[in-house]
Amino acid sequence: MDMFFQQLVNGLTVGSLYALIALGYTMVYGILKIINFAHGDILMIGTFIGLVLVTKFHLAFVPALLVAMLITAIMGILVERIAYRPVRTADKLIALLSALGVSIFLVNFAQLVWGTATHPFPANIGGDPIILGEVHIGILQIWALGVSLLLMAGLHLFVNHTQMGVAMRATSYNVDYARLMGINVDNIISVTFAIGSGLAAAAGILIGVYYDAVYPVMGYSAGLKAFTAAVLGGIGSIPGAMLGGLLLGVLENEGAAYLSAGYKDAIAFALLIIILLIKPTGLMGRNEQQKV
Amino acid sequence: MLELKDVVVHYGVVPALKGISFRVEEGEIVTLIGANGAGKSTTLKAISGLLKLKEGSITYQGGSISGKGAHMVVRQGISQVPEGRGIFANLTVEENLSLGAYTRKDKSKINENLKNVYERFPRLQERRKQVGGTLSGGEQQMLAIGRALMATPKLLLLDEPSMGLAPLVVREIFKIIREINKMGTTILLVEQNARMALSVAGRGYVLETGQIISEGSASELRGNEEVKKAYLGH
């Protein structure tokens, strides 16, 4: 039983990070109906920004996290302006290619500036783990889980209890109807990219600290897992992304513990396939209305 | 109040409106009738800014509104109830109504409007915490009209308010349309149900494949042989 609870803690930690990243995919998809394939790379840039703030500007961890989130949020807005807005009315395939272009650009940009090597992330937030029976909860796990849950709670409040949040959900339901309400959809899209990118930066930094590794292609695996989590929960659904992330994290860790660690990724993607076969809209997705 | 001049709208290369012109004066109910695919909804979308004009102009209260984005047109006092009602099925009744007042910043006026909408549609108040998707068709139409009224529009564009509703509910909706007009809101009503439309409207235009083929007072149109044959069913 101890192993079960230990893996539950590990799974929730990783899962909460998946969830943070998945939110960016799902929010953008909800409004634009495109998958932002550069999302993982935006996360990577955000992580490097956090690293630079800590190592070069000697900021403490929390201020560095917040400033990196802010800068990455602005970067997200710019990416949308430059790469997605001009092709918004074009075929979705064009936007997809544009996303891949951004992805390639960001990775190469990072390799140019920071090299291809893996950098450690000296966050200086060590401390003794909490020990409950045989279950160890590391201080970094508490940080990852705590920051993620705090950010998700904040997002939940924003989306459900502010006028901008309601407008965002309305736009995600139907862009034209939202415009008829007087909602400036361009602004909503900018805010969506800002929030998604800011959350990705937070997740990236927490991942960088947790594994003590930051490198230019770190966005691929994180992005792929989070995308899986978003689809699992129901792409377009904000609570779905949170649920999907946590569920994916827990199941792949429990699976790795009880079956074999080598099957970790296989479990994640097998889960995705099973869910898609049984419930193609994901756990909390709604059926898209087809407009004629 | 509103004037369209030689408005041409294309969907891709397909012309949907081939140069239509008409006017709506302050305080009127004007109806645009015609068969499915005649271009009625397209006309409303062109006015509200959802569609771009290829040619022609739309002026409203003396100023041009052609080429302005939809979210700017609302701010000038034009609200549209779109075809199929356009409610947000994932939002509560109250959230739907609050979005109707999205462009307004004066809290007291918003609350007053909300009170008026709930007085006019008590069913909406009962269901204010329910999501829009769980309402019946008639309730959804009431929500759509109530939501448009939250913006205190000067001109209300109604797209097929009778669509998919039982005759009794249709009569109720049209009674409400008349009341809203009496309170001072100008109405442009698009309808396939020509009989109902001509019973509330003062004037009307008949649209056929993107062109206006006939116009006149409601009683003239009711008496017009062609209109009778094509749209009134005898």
From TrEMBL, chain A:
Keywords annotated in UniProt: Amino-acid transport, Cell inner membrane, Cell membrane, Membrane, Transmembrane, Transmembrane helix, Transport
CDD domains named in the record: TM_PBP1_LivH_like (cd06582)
Chief location: membrane
GO BP terms in the entry: D-alanine transmembrane transport; L-alanine transport; L-isoleucine import across plasma membrane
GO molecular function, one term: L-isoleucine transmembrane transporter activity
One Pfam match: BPD_transp_2
Membrane topology per record: Multi-pass membrane protein
The keyword Magnesium belongs to this UniProt entry's keyword annotation: no
Record-level GO cellular component terms: plasma membrane
Transmembrane regions: 12-32, 37-54, 60-81, 93-115, 135-159, 188-211, 231-251, 258-278
InterPro entries to which the protein is assigned, alphabetical: ABC_transp_permease, BCAA_transport_permease
Statement: the UniProt record of this protein carries the keyword Membrane: yes
UniProt-annotated location(s): Cell membrane
PANTHER family documented for this protein: BRANCHED-CHAIN AMINO ACID TRANSPORT SYSTEM PERMEASE PROTEIN LIVH, HIGH-AFFINITY BRANCHED-CHAIN AMINO ACID TRANSPORT SYSTEM PERMEASE PROTEIN LIVH
Protein family according to the UniProt entry: Belongs to the binding-protein-dependent transport system permease family. LivHM subfamily.
Protein name: High-affinity branched-chain amino acid transport system permease protein LivH
Source organism of the structure: Desulfocucumis palustris
Species classification: Bacteria, Bacillati, Bacillota, Clostridia, Eubacteriales
Automatic annotation (TrEMBL), chain B:
Protein name: Branched-chain amino acid transport ATP-binding protein LivF
UniProt keywords, alphabetically: Amino-acid transport, ATP-binding, Nucleotide-binding, Transport
Protein family: Belongs to the ABC transporter superfamily.
Molecular function terms from GO: ATP binding; ATP hydrolysis activity; branched-chain amino acid transmembrane transporter activity
The organism's place on the tree of life at top rank: Bacteria
One GO process term, biological-process aspect: L-amino acid transport
Pfam families: ABC_tran
The ABC transporter domain, residue ranges: 2-234
PROSITE patterns, per database record: ABC_TRANSPORTER_1 (PS00211), ABC_TRANSPORTER_2 (PS50893)
